[in-house]
Amino acid sequence: MTSDATTEHQPVALITGTGRRFGFELAKALLAEGYLVLAHYNSSRDGVAELEESGALGFQADLTDQQAIEKLISEVRQSTQRLDLLVNNASCFFDNERVNADPQALAAVFQVHVQAPYQLINGLSELLAANGNGAVINITDIYTDSPSTDYIAYCAAKAGLANLTQSFAKQLAPQVRVNGIQPGPILFLPEHDSEHRDKVLAETPLQVEGGLEPMIQAVRFLRDNPFVTGEFIKVDGGRALRI
């Protein structure tokens, strides 16, 4: 991959975790807007293959591996001379039982949610600043502010990402803006049964599953508003009011 992969005026976005769900749908939306999308994935290529057919460039990297992240940064630098948008979306959602039984799972929670975003923002800051209006959007969680006792490590890692968001917002201003989105019940997982869904929606003031479009709208707002940095938008149907 070379630096002529994009034209001089074509906007470029790097999104982590584009194989499915929000990362995949956001990548499709940005491709439709004319972006060159750099689509990161770890193990699943199903969604990424479809994105590549629409013009995206796929980049494989295990975000628990520091050297793999550095390789990803190098590949991005070789592929483009600008980076307008970086969305740190990749996640691993492990509960206490999982991380207590597996030290690697515990490490992965912090590597994926804190270490990898730190390396990517730090390593790509020059590209983000190249046009004087770069934007970073970190996907955190409503449990950043009110942690769940069932997902202690996950919540702590997301809180670390929130702190990192504000630190980089200070450091990279005025050339780069850094913000976060705190999603709530956007899209239930396949393993969530009807009892779980009903309980979550009953605890959510708007009482609906949000879907992915509200998240994409939040990305557009944070990307396009030139006077917002170091802030977080809750896209949760009001659920954070009750946890």
UniProtKB/TrEMBL annotation:
Keyword NADP: yes
Keyword line: NADP, One-carbon metabolism, Oxidoreductase
SUPFAM superfamilies: NAD(P)-binding Rossmann-fold domains
Domain of life: Bacteria
InterPro entries to which the protein is assigned, alphabetical: NAD(P)-bd_dom_sf, Sc_DH/Rdtase_CS, SDR_fam
Catalytic activity, as annotated: 7,8-dihydromonapterin + NADPH + H(+) = 5,6,7,8-tetrahydromonapterin + NADP(+); (6S)-5,6,7,8-tetrahydrofolate + NADP(+) = 7,8-dihydrofolate + NADPH + H(+)
Any one of the GO BP annotations: one-carbon metabolic process
Signal peptide residues on this chain, from the entry's feature table: none
Enzyme Commission code(s) on record: 1.5.1.3, 1.5.1.50
MF terms (GO), sorted A to Z: dihydrofolate reductase activity
Enzyme class, spelled out: oxidoreductase
Pfam families the UniProt entry points to: adh_short
Function: Catalyzes the reduction of dihydromonapterin to tetrahydromonapterin. Also has lower activity with dihydrofolate.
Family: Belongs to the short-chain dehydrogenases/reductases (SDR) family. FolM subfamily.
Protein name stated in the entry: Dihydromonapterin reductase
Source organism of this protein record: Pseudidiomarina halophila
